[in-house]
Amino acid sequence: HKRNPDLFELTRARAAALEGDLAAVLSIKAKLTSGYHRDFQFLKEPLMRGLRRTREMLVMMTAAVPKLVVQREYSAGLLRGDILATDEVMRRVEAGVSFRTAYRAVAAELKRGVAFPIPSAAELRRRRKSVGGLGALGLAVVRSRARQSARWAHRERARFAHSIGALTGAR
Q: Which of 12, 15, 133, 170 makes an SS bond possible with 128, Cβ 3.0 to 4.6 Å?
């Protein structure tokens, strides 16, 4: 029996489909010059479908993610062999070995079935400081981009309302 929830696989697939909707919108929009064109009507379907998909994904993920738990003992038992190869290379580099030498030595030891020492959770996090990695999620950047997007959307809504008002004479 399958133990992982379908929700996350389906969300991954929906995200790919959403990218398709975005590509359709951008492709249609790119062909439009100034003024009204009849092909503009073809923007509505992928745009509305994309918005619906996004909302559904967010609703489901908002319900599911808080219920996720980490099985620490089980997860710790998986930390062996080649999954730790990069950490072992970096540990050796930190100890003064050149990267190339450490990489080759670890690769050779892996082939011989050598078990590497399991780093502590703190050590694993410390080595993963790239933005988006376990130790540096970069949420401040995401929040900043979300605020910028909200400001842009507000300006665009105001500009759109002004344009509609000018067109209809309701200024």
A: 133
CA 21 to CA 5: how far, in whole Å?
Answer: 25
144 residue type, one letter? S
The Cα 59–Cα 162 span in angstroms is 33
> DSSP secondary-structure letter at 120?
P
User: Would you give per-residue pLDDT tens digits along the chain (171 residues)?
Assistant: 567 778 888 999 999 999 999 999 888 888 777 666 777 788 889 999 999 999 999 999 999 999 988 888 888 778 777 888 888 998 899 899 999 999 999 999 999 988 888 888 788 777 777 777 666 778 888 899 999 999 999 999 999 999 998 888 876
Residue 132's contacts (CB-CB under 8 Å, 6 or more residues apart) are: 138
Rounded (10°) angle between helices 6-30 and 44-64: 150
Residue 163 CA: distances (Å) to CA of 32, 125, 160: 18, 51, 5
DSSP 34: S
Distance separating alpha carbons of residues 126 and 119, to the nearest angstrom: 10
Task: State pTM to two decimals.
Answer: 0.48
Cβ within 8 Å of residue 95, ≥6 positions away = none
